[in-house]
Design goal:
alpha+beta, elongated, single chain, 12-stranded antiparallel beta sheet, 4 helices
């Protein structure tokens, strides 16, 4: 059988075929690139281009002015450190100063879940010898529990915590929060409502007055609150100077309500149902090889 030879393609024909393939590839890639740009409106930081076997460790130092104890009318300065570890390419999660210390065991773009813990400052006779005479000390409390976060849309974070006192008090407490986020190139603004609840055990520990305490103090009557709740708002602004340094300023207001808000311990001259907090946080980030 005779074989028909195929004439070689001319350079002009090869160029035309190459141009057609190039146009087809570009036509397919263009909408994909547009979709990617829609998801990432800003250029990825340099950290995102590092080997994924690298961690970004963020060390934070915070100082804030808070009521000396729940319901107090005077304030004290409190400082504390914190740490955040994430793999390169993973964005740092938004958090607020009133979040508990948390570890996410499940974490995706819209949902987080894991253990959390908070510390509640104690009320001691030495805090106000004049007004707290006769009252038993309410030791600082440790409250471990669980948290869950949900982002219904990218610019709204909701968070709930349920905690159990294991030291200082043995009540059950919870908190609900929502934050509206407004990011810019260098700043992140956030503001949102807060709601806190507690059972009778928690309320009696910090806002109750026993008959013996009332008799010794002589300026208050016995009081037995059956619940605790408060409502307020928190706002913050974060300035990101670079991939290494960031600074956050925040302020919040909470009003103690209900049975605990009627306690004589949150009325002048013993205390105040209006509770404020102000603070500053400095973040320092660096890279290190991932340990696991």
């Amino acid at each position: 059988m005779a074989m028909t030879s195929v004439p070689p393609r001319s350079p002009r024909r090869r160029a035309a075929c190459g141009a057609g393939i190039l146009l087809a590839v570009c036509g397919t890639a263009a909408p994909r690139a547009a979709d990617l740009n829609a998801q990432l409106p800003r250029a990825a930081p340099t950290f995102a281009m590092v080997d994924p076997a690298t961690w970004i460790v963020t060390l934070s130092g915070s100082i804030q002015a808070v009521p000396r104890y729940p319901g107090a009318s005077d304030y004290t300065a409190v400082g504390y450190p914190s740490i955040d570890i994430r793999r390169v390419g993973e964005p740092r999660r938004f958090s607020t100063p009133d979040d508990g210390f948390s570890l996410a065991l499940y974490d995706d773009q819209t949902f987080r879940l894991g253990p959390t813990a908070r510390f509640v400052p104690g009320r001691y006779y030495g805090d106000d010898r004049r007004h707290l005479f006769g009252f038993r000390d309410a030791r600082f409390a440790v409250e471990p529990g669980l948290f869950v976060e949900f982002y219904p849309v990218s610019f709204i974070r909701t968070r709930a915590e349920i905690r159990q006192g294991v030291y200082g008090h043995h009540g059950t407490v919870g908190s609900l929060a929502a934050d509206y986020l407004v990011p810019t190139e260098k700043f992140l603004f956030s503001v949102g409502p807060r709601f806190n609840i507690g059972d009778a055990s928690f309320a009696r520990k910090y806002f109750g007055v026993s008959p013996a305490e009332a008799a010794l103090n002589g300026r208050v009557t016995p009081y037995d609150p059956d619940s605790f709740y408060s409502a307020g708002v928190l706002g913050a602004v974060t300035y990101t100077q670079s991939e290494t340094w960031a600074y956050t300023a925040y302020a919040g207001y909470t009003r103690i309500l209900g049975a605990s808000g009627d306690s004589p311990l949150v009325r002048r001259p013993f205390g105040d149902p209006n509770q404020f907090q102000f603070g500053l946080r400095v973040d320092y980030a660096f890279r290190m090889p991932a340990l696991f």
